[in-house]
Inverse folding.
């Protein structure tokens, strides 16, 4: 079974600084999909960014980018120019392609606080 | 606007009672999912359904039941057999090829046993 590990339960950063959230995963599949979700205090889950394992280019969405290292099974999220609205729980998630694994598997999450 | 509606937002249950959490979507998504969120545990899959009248158990299905009689609706019943039901419950939906766009989530239901 696939597993997703977020080893840092909590981080804080100053507004306008850059922060990196780490995520590792374990799978025997060769093609899969990785996601970062954000859950602000409202508890609404919001998709931040998505990466396809067969694409070598790292995904980017405005201030959010990933560092995808397939061999190391690592998928970190970089937030540039942190804003107060980035304060949230962040979840890394994995989805496989093979039968039975096409469901999102989440890590335990990391609480990010952006300080003014 | 298309989206997922979960109701109620807060639900209180007495021990020994069954309760049903509602999840409705108007996104025309084929697949729907129920996750449970506990502090420090992330989101864990309870049940999912990829087509009407069919559903599969997730990782923590014991003490829960679901139905999928309509494409738009995927209610979750928390039965008295669920030993620790107090949690935040999230419903989600996706197109069948969920890897293309990820899931769309509802705003959740907070269930408390009193």
């Amino acid at each position: 079974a696939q597993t997703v590990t977020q080893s840092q339960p909590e981080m804080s950063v100053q507004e306008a600084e850059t922060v990196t959230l780490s995520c590792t995963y374990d799978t025997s599949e060769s093609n899969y999909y990785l996601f970062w979700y954000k859950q602000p205090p409202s508890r609404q889950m919001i998709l931040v960014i998505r990466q396809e394992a067969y694409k070598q280019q790292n995904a980017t969405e405005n201030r959010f980018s990933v560092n995808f290292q397939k061999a190391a099974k690592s998928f970190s999220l970089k937030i540039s120019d942190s804003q107060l609205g980035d304060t949230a729980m962040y979840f890394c998630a994995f989805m496989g392609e093979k039968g039975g694994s096409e469901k999102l598997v989440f890590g335990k999450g990391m609480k990010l606080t952006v300080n003014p | 606007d298309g989206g997922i509606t979960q109701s109620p937002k807060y639900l209180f249950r007495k021990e020994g009672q069954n309760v049903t959490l509602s999840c409705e979507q108007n996104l025309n998504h084929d697949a729907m999912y129920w996750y449970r969120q506990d502090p420090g545990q992330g989101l864990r899959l309870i049940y999912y359904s990829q087509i009407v009248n069919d559903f599969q158990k997730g990782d923590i299905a014991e003490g829960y039941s679901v139905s999928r009689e309509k494409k738009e609706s995927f209610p979750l019943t928390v039965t008295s057999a669920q030993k620790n039901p107090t949690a935040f419950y999230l419903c989600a939906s996706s197109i069948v090829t969920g890897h293309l766009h990820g899931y769309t989530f509802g705003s959740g239901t907070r269930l408390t046993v009193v």
In short: Chain A touches chain B through 26 residues (CB under 8 Å). Residues 56 and 68 of chain A are 8 Å apart (CA to CA). The first strand of chain A starts at residue 3 and ends at 5. Chain A is about 0% helix and 50% strand.
